Amino acid sequence: MKILEQILSQSAYSHEIDVPLAQVDIADWLFNLPEAEYQRCCVPDHIAVGVTTTDDGQRMSINVEMIGTTLMIQHYVAEEATPSYVRMNSISDAFSSNGRTQVNVLWELIAEDAGNGRTRYTNRVTARPTDAFMAFIDKHGIAFADAAAARQAAGSDHNRRETPLFAESIARRAKGQAL
Asked: Which of 5, 36, 117, 129 meets the CB 3.0–4.6 Å disulfide criterion with 133?
């Protein structure tokens, strides 16, 4: 099996907000997200966020957060960024008690009409191993299944907690309220 086909962890959580889909703009929210608001969206895990571009001009979001006991520095590059769907891809630096490695993280932010003037926000995160990650766990004698189980538990817990807070932040932005 090719490494990029392997899944290290995957989770998706949804939360409905009291805003019509036509008012939601996830890309605008993400690329204008104040750091303090990002931090409020998953206390104490979210540490810092910033927006920049790649050398070729693609929009990027740099997210610093704890996923379980691992410090993640995520270099999310926008592959698609529309009002209702954002797809961000990152080769993320992961710092654990065993040292530093990298994982590939795909982050999808999805808004769908939930009916009755409401929007369903879904936060989907998929992590895949990189060659560096596979060498790292091999060096430390960690079985892929054990690494995946730990990442699944930590990543799912984090996503479960941040999704409703992201959704409510998106709703405040859509309503023109201060973040």
From this structure: 129
